[in-house]
Amino acid sequence: MIKRSAALGLITVPAMSVLSACASGGDDDTKKVDKGEKSAKNPLAVNASAPLDVVIFDGGFGQKYAKDAEAEYAKAYPKTKGKIKHAATQKIQTVLQPRFNGGTPPDLVDNSGAEQMDFGTLVSKNQLTDLTPLLDSPSLDDPNKTVRETLRPGVVEMGQFDGKPVWILYYAYTVYGVWYSKTNLAKLDAEYPETWDDMLKVCEKAKKKGVAGWTYPGKFPYYLPFSLYPFIAKIGGRDVLDSIDNLEPNAWKNPAVKAAFEAYYELYKKGYILKGTPGLSHIESQTAWNEGNALFIPNGSWVENEAKKTTPKDFQMAVGAPSSLDKSDKMPFGTLWASGGEPFIVPKAAKNPQGGMELLRIMLGEKSTKNFVQQVSSLSSLNGGTEGLTLPPGLSSAQHVLEQAGKNVVNPRLQDWYVTLQKQQIGVGALGEMMAGRMTPAEAIKKCQKFADATAKDDAVKKYKHV
Predict the structure, then answer these.
(1) Which domains are present in the chain?
(2) Which PROSITE patterns match (predicted)?
């Protein structure tokens, strides 16, 4: 899936250097359509007859869900029928850069994929509309709740930079963790291990049957944090991850990091990692897992859709939160990482920004959300939206663990604040080396801290902090 590959850095483009040429900021009100009359049914004061221009990334989620939402928009505002321009592309930057430069961007953009425009550049050049009016408007299905109040934890914060206005609305919602097959665990007469001691026992049991305990994308070892980071938070508390995100001195030297690294390294030392894993891609490791060669794999909830071609019908895919290390853990079992995905933006220079925000409000309604869930096998950022639906096993499991987690959901920001640091340096340069046995936990921690310190001292890298 191109969208997912790009989001995880499997495809790289020099977005920063290209977009730096974009016209800076500016908001020519003479180009905007007149606002409509604000009312209970039209809280954003949408011009009921103005054209709407939408560009959607045509990747793993396709574009039909957006077209269906546009049809709902046309029902709400009949005079816009035939005036909604819909375009889909996998080359977001190539297609839209000239329009941003020329001051004629679309009204709503699904900014995703291999050519995703760099958010830091867009924000710093004042090219995005503050979405606070959307978030503070009444939700589509319950006027007594604002849109903000209907969203899952962390979604609003992900669209902020330094706690300032909300520039991005993440529409999809990803649950990360340790993925497994209930069928394959049952063959070992085992259940998902809630403690690390039990995890090791299950892996030893599997090893005796010729099955590896774990595999992961060794070519892209920044998948490891999908289960490792919430494991660190569970052991030491969410403040440990916050200090890492904030690039604080010695953050990686926290005892919780040491304990988590040593636990994962034990998987390697005891021979519980599938042979050849360091050389596997994400697709290859998922296929090996599907084939029953390994029990567990760190991943996100997109894996069910991405791996469906090789997943046996009786696989019963499921996801588990990180196992408990011991009774001294600061957070309870069930703590996991979940966060928004598929980022939507309303350009600052859009002619009809109210229309762009209103389409997002419609997309976050129950009807459009259920349509999205059914079409692409993913949760949306709407807190709910699956009532009455029959969900596939993996998605059903993801929703269950999310409900079980309650408030114990963490959202590390390193992967979207400092992409190079997270993926190439910490992921490949430290975690990948450690899990391949080429570096000890102590050496990996020292390396992570060195990389983080270098980023903190680099004046060319804009810094962000939890507020």
Answers:
(1) 2-174+339-405 (3.40.190.10), 176-337+413-457 (3.40.190.10)
(2) PROKAR_LIPOPROTEIN
